[in-house]
Amino acid sequence: MQIRFRDTVLPILALGFLTLSAMPQDDANAGLALRVQVLEAHVQEMRGSMEAQQKAAAALLTSLDAAEEAGFTAGINPKSREILLGAWRAQAKALGSPAKKPEEGKKGKKRSRR
Would residue 71 be called left, alpha or beta, if left means φ above 0 and alpha means ψ between -120 and 50 degrees? Predict the structure, then answer.
């Protein structure tokens, strides 16, 4: 399962900002600092999880290649085993690819301030 920025980080940030807007202004600075710490912890946790998934996916691809070289696809109904290897490789590649970073701004288009 690939973790996507728009599906995980954005909702967390949105919830954080929504709760901050509901706070009285006196407590906003203290609440903001707390929220930032909580959100940073969540982001670090997600990054660790994504890195672990990428390492596991690389190990899976290596194991699949070794199984194929050792003769996994030989024997009864080899085509079904080739299909399984293909599906597992596709899944491992999807898990191993890093999540796409959001665009930092569209090039060529400038916003004017009013």
Answer: left
